[in-house]
TrEMBL record:
Lineage, highest ranks first: Bacteria, Bacillati, Actinomycetota, Actinomycetes, Kitasatosporales
One Gene Ontology molecular-function label: tRNA binding
Protein name per the record: Mhr22
Gene from which this protein is expressed: mhr22
UniProtKB keywords: Aminoacyl-tRNA synthetase, ATP-binding, Ligase, Nucleotide-binding, Protein biosynthesis
Entry-linked InterPro entries: aa-tRNA-synth_II, aa-tRNA-synth_II/BPL/LPL, Phenylalanyl-tRNA_Synthase
Length: 281
C-alpha cells in the first residue's frame, strides 16, 4: 500500500451489505446516439459541406410519389407484393427515393441538393442480411451542367468517407425505373477472407445504387429536363453498419441491446478537417 494511505475501515452496515463498495456508483449513464442515427450524421458531415440539405422524410408517402412518378409499373414486385398500404393511395415508404418528387416540387425551378433520410418498410421476412424495416439515405442533385463525372465523384466521397480514402470501389450497370443509366455501387469486401460469406468469394459487395434521373421524373418534379440534369444515389444505413463493423445479423440493430450498441462508439467520430471541403460536384 502506498505510504500515507491507511486501509479503509468498513462500518458493519457496509460490510454486511450485498455490494462491492469498491465499485463506482450506479448513477445515471450518459446516453449517446443510436449507431444508425450516428451514421446518418456521419454521412451528413460528408455531404452538407457540398451544399446538401439534410431532410428527414415522413413514414407515409403517396402511392403516386412512391411508385407512379418514379416509373414503377403496376406489376412491379415492390409495388404488388412487398409494400404495405395502410389507407387508399397511401403507402408506408418503401425507399427514400420516393421523397425526391416532393423535394423537387418544393425547389423547382431552382437548383436542388438534398440528402433524404427516411425509415423504409418492406412486406417481407427479415434475415441476417436485410430487414423489413431499415433506414435509407438518398442523395439528390438537380441543376444544370452535371452528369456522370459528378455522380462518380459523389460515389467516391461516400466510399472514402465511410471505408477510408483509397478503398477500392466500382460500379456496374443496374436497372432502376427512375434512372437511366443506373448503376450499382460495389466496394472491395471489407470482411473478405477464405470462405467469406459476405461476398461469396466475389471480392466485392454492393452498398448502394444511383444514376441519372429520367426525363419524366424531372418533369413530374417541375423541372425542364432540357435545362437541368438530376443525379440520384442511395444506400441502406444498416447495411453499411453491418459491413463496416462486422455485424453478422442486421436485425440486432433493432433489439436495443446495450451490449451491442456500446460497441459502436467509434462510429461517432466526426469527419476530419481533411475530409471537409467547399468544393461542388
Amino acid at each position: 500500500m502506498p505510504d500515507g494511505l491507511a486501509p479503509t475501515v468498513l462500518t458493519p452496515a457496509v460490510a454486511d451489505a450485498r455490494c462491492d463498495p469498491g465499485l463506482p456508483p450506479a448513477g445515471p449513464r450518459t446516453g449517446r446516439p443510436h449507431p444508425v442515427a450516428a451514421l446518418v450524421d456521419r454521412i451528413g458531415d460528408l455531404f452538407v459541406p457540398l451544399g446538401f440539405d439534410l431532410v428527414q422524410l415522413p413514414l407515409l408517402e403517396s402511392v403516386r410519389d412512391n411508385f407512379d412518378v418514379l416509373g414503377y409499373p403496376p406489376d412491379h414486385p415492390t409495388r404488388t407484393r412487398l409494400s404495405l398500404l395502410p389507407a387508399p393511395d397511401v403507402v408506408l415508404r418503401t425507399h427514400a427515393t420516393s421523397g425526391g418528387p416532393r423535394a423537387m416540387r418544393a425547389a423547382a425551378p431552382g437548383p436542388l441538393r438534398a440528402l433524404l433520410v427516411g425509415t423504409c418498410f418492406r412486406n417481407e421476412l427479415s434475415s441476417p442480411y436485410s430487414g423489413s424495416q431499415f433506414t435509407q439515405i438518398d442523395g439528390l442533385v438537380v441543376q444544370p451542367d452535371v452528369g456522370l463525372p459528378e455522380l462518380m465523384g459523389l460515389f467516391d466521397r461516400l466510399v472514402s468517407g465511410l471505408f477510408g480514402p483509397g478503398h477500392p470501389w466500382r460500379v456496374r450497370r443496374g436497372g432502376y425505373p427512375f434512372a437511366a443509366p443506373g448503376f450499382a455501387v460495389e466496394v472491395a469486401c471489407p470482411r473478405c477472407g477464405p470462405g467469406c460469406d459476405e461476398c461469396e468469394g466475389r471480392g466485392h459487395v454492393e452498398i448502394g445504387a444511383g444514376g441519372l434521373l429520367r426525363a419524366q421524373v424531372l418533369t413530374a418534379g417541375g423541372y425542364d429536363p432540357h435545362r437541368v440534369t438530376g443525379l440520384s444515389f442511395g444506400c441502406s444505413v444498416e447495411r453499411l453498419l453491418r459491413l463496416s463493423h462486422g455485424l453478422t445479423d442486421i436485425r440486432e440493430l433493432l433489439v436495443n441491446d446495450m451490449r451491442l450498441l456500446e460497441q459502436f462508439e467509434h462510429a461517432y467520430l466526426p469527419v476530419g478537417p481533411s475530409e471537409k471541403g467547399v468544393d461542388r460536384p
